[in-house]
Hints:
By secondary structure, the protein is α/β, with parallel strands linked by helices. The chain has one domain (4-273): Rossmann fold. It has helices at 56-63, 110-117, 125-138, 154-169, 184-200, 213-219, 259-273, and strands spanning 4-19, 22-36, 44-49, 71-77, 87-89, 95-98, 172-175, 205-209, 222-227, 230-231, 234-235, 240-246. One of its GO terms (molecular function) is ATP hydrolysis activity. Keywords: ATP-binding, Nucleotide-binding, Transport. Residues 10-253 form the ABC transporter domain.
Amino acid sequence: xxxxxxxxxxxxxxxxxxxxxxxxxxxxxxxxxxxxxxxxxxxxxxxxxxxxxxxxxxxxxxxxxxxxxxxxxxxxxxxxxxxxxxxxxxxxxxxxxxxxxxxxxxxxxxxxxxxxxxxxxxxxxxxxxxxxxxxxxxxxxxxxxxxxxxxxxxxxxxxxxxxxxxxxxxxxxxxxxxxxxxxxxxxxxxxxxxxxxxxxxxxxxxxxxxxxxxxxxxxxxxxxxxxxxxxxxxxxxxxxxxxxxxxxxxxxxxxxxxxxxxxxxxxxxxxxxxx
Length: 275
């Protein structure tokens, strides 16, 4: 499937994060560009996989500006200026973050929470209402608009949290284990949510972690394996990128899951076990 790469949307160079003397992640380098496919709005879907304790959560905290890098830098396209040609260092609030609990305001209904998320947007009350109702309709949440978080299913909470972050943060979003604890139906809802986010704008960039390797391979167009590197025959005790799979270059992105995808699943598992 033909595609071309345009503006750099995410640039990570020589990233490390240490807490005191303990280095958690180190030597993280990668670049993700805006992918353009003719006749299709295509956002970026980037998966991070790896064994527990290898630093994925710390990497996400750095990517969302919640923790300052010890070394290196994280740049994103400044999508508010000049069509995204300028770059800026990530600050807290630039990248949306949806945690495993889909944290929402306990005392706000779905509608009220989304209205609050739009508080800094220069829009009239009517424009905000129309935008919220449009999203609720598209995301299958119309009937839940006056419900509180404790009245929602896990899938409904997740979708509300995702829309909230889209309203707050714009084009970039990190989801920590978005498929964890969901049943089959809710997993399908979450996959549909990914497709919706991707089809809204070509700058939209989803970064997510998952322990479900097949879901990573099915949904992502770029996959990074985070693990302990082997140095002089010994495992180092910090996380880094030990393998990258560009599903676009492998001609496996945006396709039905098949034998080629299964082969990548095997290669990812081998890389994880070795790190």
